[in-house]
Write a structure and sequence with these properties.
Blueprint: H1 2-21, E1 23-28, E2 31-32, E3 36-38, E4 44-45, H2 47-59, E5 62-67, H3 73-78, E6 84-85, H4 93-96, E7 100-101, E8 110-115, E9 129-133, H5 137-145, E10 150-154, H6 157-165, E11 171-175, H7 176-185, E12 189-196, H8 199-203, E13 209-210, H9 215-230, H10 233-241
Parallel strand pairs: 1-5, 1-6, 9-10, 9-11
Antiparallel strand pairs: 2-3, 3-4, 6-13, 7-13, 8-11, 8-12
Helix pairs in contact: 2-9, 2-10
Length: 244
């Protein structure tokens, strides 16, 4: 009887470990459509979420998604509150010192928008207020490369856009794909200057972050990315959220 109980206990432990390995807790900051945002039912939706779900299906894993402020995502990941972060996050040398990224899943660039016809280049924004989400690469880039521009941080890009439309700031700096969505519903706004593709900040692309000690998950995610790119799933998700 003791042997049977011991065997049952061991099997229960094995079952638990397998289940744990097949469950991935993703964190996102749901303030950045079309990559991630909250729908009418308060569920996180977007390109990143559909991509993560496709990866989970490929890996035969159960995945959960939690909304977390962008500037606390990496800290929460490092403290093991989550297993991975997918949140329109640029792969940068600075972040790579803290976490490990998958291969890039989306090529990225950034651009400033402002009231149509008001500015033509970043030089015109000297001494002006430019809004962006706190903790983002956009904030870091402007502070490092254009200290002559006054950066104003917000808890979400929605609030930055609102401040721009109300005339409290002169522009907003964000990812090109996201900016294009804003422009569709804000015809009074327009791009300013050229796209920014500085590799130190944007040129590498967006990646999924995992803890540096979780190489097993990193390997699985990269293999799943390759698989869904090969079978057309990735392209279908891309076409859904970024139609030509």
């Amino acid at each position: 009887m003791k042997k049977l109980l011991l065997a049952a206990t061991i099997m229960a432990g094995v079952t638990f470990n397998v289940a744990a390995a097949d469950s991935i807790r993703f964190a996102s900051s749901a303030t950045y459509p079309p990559f991630e945002s909250l729908d009418a039912n308060n569920q996180i939706v977007g390109f990143d979420i559909d991509l993560a779900k496709a990866l989970c299906k490929q890996m035969q894993a159960d995945c959960t998604f939690t909304n977390q402020a962008f500037d606390s995502l990496i800290a929460a990941l490092k403290f093991k509150k989550y297993d991975a972060v997918i949140s329109g996050m640029d792969i940068t040398p600075e972040r790579s010192k803290q976490v490990t990224f998958t291969q890039p899943y989306y090529a990225n660039s950034a651009i400033v928008i402002a009231q149509k016809g008001k500015f033509t280049s970043l030089a015109d924004l000297k001494g002006k207020k430019l809004g962006m989400e706190n903790g983002t690469t956009h904030q870091k880039y402007m502070q490092d490369k254009h200290p002559e521009i006054n950066t104003v941080s917000y808890d979400s890009y929605q609030n930055a856009i609102l401040e721009l439309k109300n005339g409290r700031i002169e522009g907003v700096f964000g990812d090109t794909a996201v900016v294009n969505e804003w422009l569709k519903s804000n015809p009074d706004l327009a791009p300013v200057g050229e796209h920014v593709t500085d590799a130190q900040y944007f040129g590498t692309g967006l990646g999924i972050a995992v803890r540096q000690d979780n190489q097993a998950l990193l390997t699985k995610l990269n293999a799943a990315l390759e698989a869904i790119k090969a079978d057309g799933t990735y392209q279908a998700i891309n076409d859904k959220w970024f139609p030509q």
